[in-house]
Amino acid sequence: MPTNSEILSYAPGAGYLAANDVGNSVLFNNFARLNPILPQQIYALYFVIKKIYDKDPNYSGMDVACQYLWEIMGRYGIAAQGITGGGSVSPITPTGQGFPIYITQADFASATFYPNTRLFGVNITVFLSQINRLLLPVSEFTVDSTGLTILVSGFDATQNSYELLIDKYYN
Hints:
Elements: H1 4-27, H2 38-55, H3 62-73, H4 75-84, E1 101-104, E2 113-115, E3 124-128, E4 133-134, E5 141-144, E6 147-150, E7 163-168
Antiparallel strand pairs: 1-7, 2-6, 3-4, 3-7, 5-6
Helix pairs in contact: 1-2, 1-3, 1-4, 2-3, 3-4
């Protein structure tokens, strides 16, 4: 038997799973075997018990109330254990570059070079707000394994203020 806090953590998932089954039973005309208001019953019980639990986890009737909620959840409570419990999930660390990228002259390592190794191999567009247009690849900017180089005549991030937007180009 799960603890009171575990039961309360499983209840939202159980309500969702029950609602999904109710929706499927409506879709496939199989009303006879499922309580159509079970998701609402689970949520209503959970809502009240959770409020009491948050104020006083040692409330005298808490064990009985949580056991009743567990019984109402039935197979959906057991299924919710697989969704919310039973292990840990490692955090996902992004490996790619997030887009769009907003850069200013302060982001440049030199007059024309923006260091960002994650741009290499990605189709990108570069918008230079001072000339109000996209830069042309190869003739006005290049990307290599170390970053982005701006080739526009007169561009100097050490002397002028610039705002650029780098975005991924999907073809």
